[in-house]
Amino acid sequence: MARPDPSIVILTGAGISAESGIATFRESGGLWESHSLEEVATPQGFARDPDLVHAFYNARRAAVRGVSPNPAHRALARLEQALPGQVLIVTQNVDDLHERAGSKRVIHMHGELSRALCHACQARWAAPDLMHAGDPCPRCGKPATRPDIVWFGEFPYYMDEIETALSACTTFAAIGTSGQVWPAAGFVQRARATGARCIEINLDQSEVSGDFHEHLIGRAGEAVPAWAERVLAG
Ligand code: OAD
């Protein structure tokens, strides 16, 4: 029988999708170098210029459609399959590469490119490939549709479920995230406080590296499969 609480909680960030060809945010060449975060990732930016914001997310949706999961996504899916009920992925990523690799238990704390949201009535539905300012909501009809993405200044999704999982896990792994965005950056402290062993997998040091017990420095596509094998070997 599946355990009610996962014993392994895995936080993923943009770095896990980098080798699939999806740009990260803060590295050289990252998305926040070529786009203003305030313009495309805040409610105020959307109110000012919804066309620009839709164009940004339409382009990102198209970019994700054209790529595939990499060995890191696939290794996490195999881990979940081998340890039923024990693995939970909490991702900051808005792509669907974990699901396409076969992971079932995935929480998208920053929303999903594949979903649309009505900011008038809170209805949610599958986003079309192209969204436009003024598209009517299928439920209330108001021209108030937006990407279902958590922007800066908004609350991440599923925080109660995440908090419960962090307080029950025995292993916490953070993969490919810079530790610069809260509350995700604080998950390691939360897990560590309840006794979990904390492992960071990243190309480099992150802002919160000092909070982890162990660091695996390297590309996710190599380091994650190796770590997953180690977990399965006990
Ligand atoms: P960042 O762009 O801030 O950080 C990416 C991290 O991935 C860095 O620490 C890199 O060292 C690491 N990295 C890059 N390539 C890697 C590879 N091949 N293998 C392993 N690690 C690699 O992305 P996030 O931490 O995910 O939020 O950013 C967090 C949030 O900030 C995002 O969810 C997004 C953004 O603004 C919203 O849009 C709300």
Task: Write up this protein.
Helix 6 packs parallel to helix 10 and helix 8 runs parallel beside helix 9. This protein is an alpha/beta fold. The two termini are 20 Å apart. The relative contact order is 0.18. It has two domains: 143 residues, Rossmann fold (3-Layer(aba) Sandwich), CATH 3.40.50.1220; 77 residues, SIR2/SIRT2 'Small Domain'. The chain contains ten helices and nine strands. A six-stranded parallel β-sheet has the order 3-2-1-7-8-9, sandwiched between helices. 35% of the residues lie in helices and 19% in strands. The site of 2'-O-acetyl adenosine-5-diphosphoribose has 25 residues, from helix 1. 2'-O-acetyl adenosine-5-diphosphoribose binds next to helix 1.
Which CATH class of the largest domain applies here? Alpha Beta
> End-to-end distance, in Å?
20 Å
Estimate what percentage of residues fall within beta strands.
15-25%
Average pLDDT number:
95
CATH architecture of the largest domain, please? 3-Layer(aba) Sandwich
Low-confidence stretches: none
The amount of helix comes to: 25-40%
Give me the secondary-structure category.
Answer: alpha/beta
Describe the global form.
globular
**What is the number of beta strands?**
9
- H and E order: EHHHHHHEHEEEEHEHEEH
